[in-house]
Amino acid sequence: MDVSGVWRRGGALLVFAVVLTSCVQREEPGLERVRRAGELRWGADAQGGEPYAMEDPDVPGHMRGFEVELADALARELGVRARFVQNDWSSLIPSLERGSFDVALNGIEVTPARSGRILFTRPYFIFQLRLLARRQDDSVTGLSSLRGRRVGTLANSQAWDLLQREGIQAVPYEGVEEPYIDLEQGRVDAVLMDDLIAQRYGQPRPQLRVVGDVGEGYYAIAVRPGDEDLRAALDVALGHVARSGELRRIFARWNIDSAQQQKMVEWTDAQTREVLSQTSTAKLGWGQGLMFLQAALVTLVVSVGAMALAVPLGVGLALVRLYGPRWLSGMASFYVEVFRGTPVLLQLYVLYYGLAGVLRLDALSAAVLGLGLNYAAYEAEVYRAGVLAVPRGQMEAALALGMSTPLALRRVVFPQAFRVALPSVTNDFIALLKDSSLVSVISVVELTKRMTITAVDVRSWLLPGALCAALYLAMSYPLSLLARRLEARLARG
Q: In what order do the strands lie in the sheet with 119-120?
């Protein structure tokens, strides 16, 4: 009998049993987990800025904001310390569900879709949805006057849901200041945001005016399903902080207190049940599928347009670097190093927002121009390498036959260089298809942005992510096949 084999099989079974037991073991209750760790991890996005949660400019690495103070007060009530966890605002709820932090506390609005998937504590702040328009635009009188027009807001917010219900074209943004910049520049017709955001980032701008408040909502703390004990403990802590007067003192320090916030002091469990009673769960259906196709078309238009700009500009840069005068070759080299050595995301921000005062472009044009200028630097190096791969004797022979340099390049050198460069050009275009996802920062709803919006709506990243990947593959794979056929044809020639 093979004793060693028996021991090996027995050991394997033991390891499998331990793993299986750990998988089916019940997860530790939320409140017990927090107290054992000695900290309440709360997720928020510092990009949301004042007055929510932001980095303190006077103390690097330190956070400040009314929600920072609220988190500290709640952690104190639980007998632990608060720890901030940075997370993009639009994905706070999915990150909470996967366990990246204990609670989400960052202006999380109570909506039916969110109430259908996660737990909410009692509200801690009442906000108004405030509509702003340009001062000289008298046509904007309310939501009814904006049907068929573009209105900026944060994606997956209560304002976003309201605009969708009203049949208004909602333009999604990542930050809170960018929509008001676009409103000033005439790129959107209005902006609908929470009043806390409007007061600090919209109303101080002299070119904008307040149209009015068109809705009311509540901020509450989001908790994972299964952490009912943590939710209950936070409700008790919020009630104590509110009744003691500390909550309104926090609001007063940040100039956001008002008479209506007294409701938070007198809030009852019955009111919490009423606010959370409306729930809904969105599903991935044909409507979202159609929007995915539209977003894929936007991705294709941006990518093709950018590549159509990058290729001729890259060819010109390559030829100038190789055959131009020294001063012009130096300028071309400087262009390549600047655009290749700085992030394309930064270039898009500078082109669309930084130069808005002197170069007014719509979002789609800025996306095509920004990506085109960036990829031209890479294409220049690809074509320069292709030209250098052609033996020098080819050029010398063409010149000896009486051809001019431009004619020799066009008839002899460049056809051979193109064959060498074709695989790299194909690879760059496929990379450009994927890099086009970055243009969402300037409010272009391309394929990846549509996927994130839908994933947050339906509270699932698997199906929207698979559909997004399938569409990217459907756009890039035919290009790969076409490039292979062209390479084979050029090889035969």
A: 81-86, 39-44, 103-104, 222-223, 119-120
SS3 call for 44: strand
> 204: how many CB neighbours lie within 10 A of its CB?
10
**According to the model, what pLDDT value does residue 392 have?**
81
Question: Rounded to an integer, what distance in angstroms lies between the CA atom of residue 28 and that of residue 223?
Answer: 14
Q: What is the pLDDT of residue 27?
A: 58
Residue from 153, 147, 157, 117 nearest 132 by CA: 153
Phi-psi region of 357 (alpha: psi -120 to 50; beta: other; left: phi over 0): alpha
Whether pTM > 0.90 for this model: the answer is no
What is the model's pLDDT at position 229?
Answer: 94
Structure tokens at 209: 């005016």
| Residues whose CB falls within 8 Å of the CB of residue 388, separated by 6 or more in sequence, listed in order | 322
Q: Give the pLDDT band (50/70/90) at residue 3.
A: very low
- Name the residue among 263, 267, 221 with its Cα closest to residue 77: 221
Residues 6+ apart with CB under 8 A from 236: 77
Residues in the chain: 493
Report long-range pairs for 265-274 (Cβ below 8 Å, ≥24 apart). 267/122, 267/123, 267/239, 267/242, 269/122, 269/235, 271/122, 272/122, 272/123, 272/235
Helix ranges (DSSP H) in 266-413: 269-275, 286-323, 326-341, 344-349, 363-389, 392-400, 405-408
Distance (Å, whole) CA 321 – CA 384: 8
Give the separation between CA 380 and CA 488, rounded to whole angstroms: 24
Residue 248 exposure: Cα atoms within 13 Å on the Cβ side: 14
DSSP letters along 207-276, please? TEEEEEEEEEEEE--EE-TT-HHHHHHHHHHHHHHHHTTHHHHHHHHTT---GGGHHHHS--HHHHHHHT
> Rounded distance, CA 263 to CA 123, Å?
10
- The pLDDT, as a whole number, for residue 24 is 39
Per the structure block, which two tokens stand in for 203? 């109303």
Q: Which residue has the tokens 């007055």?
A: 51
Angle, helices 228-243 vs 30-37, to 10°: value is: 70
The DSSP-derived string for 349-361 is: HIIIIITTTT---
**Rounded to an integer, what distance in angstroms lies between the CA atom of residue 125 and that of residue 219?**
5
Cβ atoms < 10 Å from Cβ of 438: 21
For residue 434, is pLDDT > 50?
yes
Q: Measuring CA to CA, which residue among 24, 84, 116 is closest to residue 460?
A: 116
Q: Name the 3-class secondary structure at 14.
A: helix
Question: What sign results for the dihedral spanned by CA atoms 157, 163, 169, 175?
Answer: negative
